[in-house]
């Protein structure tokens, strides 16, 4: 999953980027509101963590402008201000959650998971599922048929992206951007190599949960989704 960090303090930005990368996210930093607006409106992000007091557009102005541009990515605002009216202003501008500094990274991470969950499927369980494959983003445990599956960070991120978009064909370009954080390079086959490894570890070669979509990329489809389609 690709997260945009909007923070002008290099120490805090570095702390957030390191922590999110260790949890398997692709995390990019914008140091001001105007750069963040350009990135959020032209590149595909799954969520944004936005400091309120930043150069250029403030965090609140950034969220308001993104919503006016119909950019609907979940936004978690960060601020040292803890007055109720400040929180109301941020949420009214279109932010999805609000976290006051100082904060524990574990709380930020949990709030981010909740935002991503609600964005994917409002009211959905915290556990991601497709067929008999289960993923718990809080513990990073993956199981198939109740048996644990050991994945590398990149395999985990790829499977998470597929599960959060269950039933939808995902292009190789989108997967490279959201999982590897790089623009599509037709000369590389890293997506195919990773999918091949996932199919082996999930024992999926015969069962076909992860499907190749000809001319597009891949999709994860549970049996029920296939029959509905």
Characterise this structure:
Residues 125-222 form the OmpR/PhoB-type domain. Residues 125-222 bind DNA. This is Two-component system OmpR family response regulator. Residues 2-116 form the Response regulatory domain. GO terms for molecular function: phosphorelay response regulator activity; transcription cis-regulatory region binding. With 229 residues, the protein is α/β, with parallel strands linked by helices. The protein folds into 2 domains: 2-119, Response regulator (Rossmann fold), CATH 3.40.50.2300; 128-220, Winged helix-like DNA-binding domain superfamily/Winged helix DNA-binding domain (Arc Repressor Mutant, subunit A, Orthogonal Bundle), CATH 1.10.10.10. Helix content is 43%, strand content 21%. It has helices spanning 10-22, 33-42, 59-68, 84-93, 105-120, 153-164, 172-180, 190-201, 223-228; strands at residues 2-6, 26-30, 47-51, 75-79, 97-100, 128-130, 133-136, 141-144, 147-148, 170-171, 210-213, 217-220. The chain has a 5-stranded parallel β-sheet, sandwiched between helices. Strands 6-7-8-9 form a 4-stranded antiparallel β-sheet, covered by helices on one side. Helix 6 crosses helix 8. The protein is globular. The two termini are 26 Å apart. The mean pLDDT is 89.
Query: What percentage of the residues does DSSP assign to strands (E)?
Result: 15-25%
**Order of strands across the main sheet:** 2-1-3-4-5
Q: Please report the distance between the alpha carbons of the first and last residues.
A: 26 Å
How helix-rich are the residues, as a percent range? 40-55%
Low-confidence segments, given as residue ranges, are: none
For the biggest sheet, the summary is: 5 strands, parallel
Number of helices: 9
CATH class of the largest domain: Alpha Beta
Helix-strand sequence: EHEHEHEHEHEEEEHEHHEEH
CATH-derived architecture of the largest domain: 3-Layer(aba) Sandwich
Structural class: alpha/beta
Oligomer: single chain
Which geometry do the CA atoms define?
A: globular
- Whole-number mean pLDDT: 89
Domain OmpR/PhoB-type: 125-222
Keywords: DNA-binding, Phosphoprotein, Transcription, Transcription regulation, Two-component regulatory system
Protein name: Two-component system OmpR family response regulator
Modified residues (4-aspartylphosphate): 51
């Amino acid at each position: 999953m690709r997260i945009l960090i909007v923070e002008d303090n290099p120490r805090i930005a570095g702390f957030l980027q390191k922590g999110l990368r260790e949890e398997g996210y692709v995390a990019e930093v914008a140091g001001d509101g105007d750069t963040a607006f350009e990135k959020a409106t032209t590149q595909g992000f799954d969520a944004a963590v936005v400091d309120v007091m930043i150069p250029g557009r403030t965090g609140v102005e950034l969220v308001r402008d993104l919503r006016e541009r119909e950019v609907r990515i979940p936004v978690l605002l960060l601020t040292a201000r803890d007055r109720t009216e400040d929180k109301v202003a941020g949420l009214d501008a279109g932010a999805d959650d609000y976290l006051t500094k100082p904060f524990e990274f574990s709380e930020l991470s949990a709030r981010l998971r909740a935002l991503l969950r609600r964005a994917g499927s409002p009211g959905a369980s915290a556990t991601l599922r497709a067929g008999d494959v289960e993923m718990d983003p809080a513990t990073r445990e993956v199981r198939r048929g109740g048996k644990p599956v050991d994945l590398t960070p990149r395999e985990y991120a790829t499977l998470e992206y597929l599960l959060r978009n269950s039933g939808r064909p995902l292009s190789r370009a989108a997967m490279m951007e959201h999982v590897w954080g790089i623009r599509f390079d037709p000369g590389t086959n890293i997506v195919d190599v990773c999918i091949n490894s996932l199919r082996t570890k999930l024992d999926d070669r015969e069962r076909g949960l992860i499907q190749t979509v000809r001319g597009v990329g891949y999709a994860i489809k549970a049996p029920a989704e296939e029959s509905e389609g």
